[in-house]
Design goal:
By secondary structure, the protein is α+β, with helices and mostly antiparallel strands. It has a single domain, classed as Glutaredoxin, CATH 3.40.30. The longest helix has 18 residues. The radius of gyration is 17 Å and the shape is globular.
Length: 208
């Protein structure tokens, strides 16, 4: 029987993906579920799914988002800077680094979280090759080669396909989780995702 897996679509500049990443990884570890990491280009996805970029939202919506960020920061005990110094930087190379590492058969859990943390906590520009090389050296093998491949046409085309595939599967925000035909939007839906994983395990054991 194939091991169950969660398809995880996220933007490397997403505050909510930063908050949810460690808990998603814990779900995978607790239940033996593989996490498939798919970085996507959020402005592109928004433009095709009716989303509105933060800078274009009403003051009321922007203010409420800040209130929610503060609540979750306290609840999770995870620091965050709002606004981040490089919150509007380019995400292509960082996303490409994750994809290049995937292609090399390496785990991308840590580098994905490190990129998000760099943007939201460490005030680092994740569009910078130097920054990405430092981050990659923490958890990846052959980091210079991966970084070189990250900007290649092949990897960037795959990045584009991830975004198109996400849209086709019903994704319109970040983070987004897909599991056995069910979709879950937002790190505040991780509890529901875990319930779905547990229910699937019970069915496979004939205990449902």
């Amino acid at each position: 029987m194939a091991q169950p897996s969660i398809d995880y679509y996220f933007w490397v500049l997403s505050d909510w993906a930063y908050f949810g990443g460690p808990r998603l990884a814990s779900i995978g570890e607790r239940h033996g579920v593989t996490i498939n990491y798919f970085p996507i280009k959020m402005p592109y996805v928004y433009a095709r799914t009716g989303g509105i970029l933060l800078s274009q939202r009403s003051k009321q919506r922007q203010d409420y988002r800040l209130a929610e960020l503060r609540r979750w920061q306290v609840k999770l005990g995870m620091p965050i800077n709002e606004p981040p110094k490089y919150g509007t930087t380019n995400e292509d190379l960082a996303s490409g680094l994750i994809i290049a590492a995937k292609r090399a058969g390496q785990s991308v859990e840590q580098i994905s979280h490190d990129i998000l943390k760099a943007a939201w906590v460490e005030e680092l520009d994740v569009a910078s090759p130097d920054v990405l090389l430092t981050l990659a050296n923490r958890s990846l093998k052959n980091a210079p080669r991966l970084l070189e491949e990250a900007g290649s046409p092949s990897v960037q085309e795959e990045f584009g396909r991830y975004s198109d595939d996400a849209i086709a599967k019903g994704v319109f925000g970040s983070p987004f989780y897909l599991f056995e035909g069910d979709i879950f939007w937002g790190q505040d839906r991780l509890e529901f995702l875990e319930e779905a994983v547990v229910a699937s395990k019970m069915r496979s054991l004939g205990k449902a």
